[in-house]
Design brief:
- The chain is built from 1 helix and 4 strands.
- It is of the alpha+beta class.
């Protein structure tokens, strides 16, 4: 299996509770650093669309406890 090293967001600083991402066999893999056994896999296209949506605020309502 060909894969790159796990990378975490620069926003995480020294905090170990963050989302990590890497490429593996043409897919994108994501995991939480504090629960590394659970890995979510997706295509680069779907991941790019997710990132576009997150940057556009499409998921902000999930962070609102009133919803």
């Amino acid at each position: 299996m060909t894969s790159s090293a796990w990378q975490k967001s620069s926003y995480s600083a020294a905090n170990n509770q963050c989302v990590e991402v890497r490429t593996a066999e043409g897919l994108i893999e994501l995991r939480e650093s504090d629960d590394g056994d659970v890995i979510v896999r997706t295509t680069p296209t779907k991941f790019a669309k997710f990132l576009q949506g997150a940057k556009a605020g499409e998921f902000d309502h999930f962070a609102d406890p009133a919803n």
